[in-house]
Amino acid sequence: MPLKKLADDAVSRIEQAVSAPLGDAERAAVSRIVEQAMIDAVAETTQHCTDAARLHIGADEDKAHKFAEKVRRAEAALVSNLTGLR
Predict the structure, then answer these.
(1) What is the DSSP-derived secondary structure letter of residue 18?
(2) How many C-beta atoms surround the C-beta of residue 1 within 10 A?
(3) Domain layout of the chain by residue ranges
(4) In this structure, what DSSP letter does residue 60 have?
(5) What is 65-84 written as a DSSP string?
(6) Residue 62 pLDDT
(7) pLDDT per residue over 16-67, tens digit each?
(8) Which candidate, 53, 46, 32, 54, places its Cα nearest to that of 77?
(9) Alpha carbons 57 and 79: distance in angstroms, whole number
(10) CA torsion through residues 67, 69, 72, 74, sign
């Protein structure tokens, strides 16, 4: 599912949960909050995955470094995509 759709769906669910419809400025603010929450979740998950890979790969530092670098590149691409939602 495209990230833009995820953010839009989240904003729609939030709007349904509040008693009054959101204005354009409020929708934009909520969208930014949702976007930042996704970025934060990705960053935290990436760190956990990188730590787990280092723990399991252990002795092979080169492999661990290469894996960590691939994960960081994937995270950077995702964060760029999320930032593009603005």
Answers:
(1) S
(2) 6
(3) 3-83
(4) -
(5) HHHHHHHHHHHHHHHHHHHT
(6) 76
(7) 888 788 888 988 888 888 878 888 888 888 888 877 777 777 667 777 778 7
(8) 46
(9) 26
(10) negative
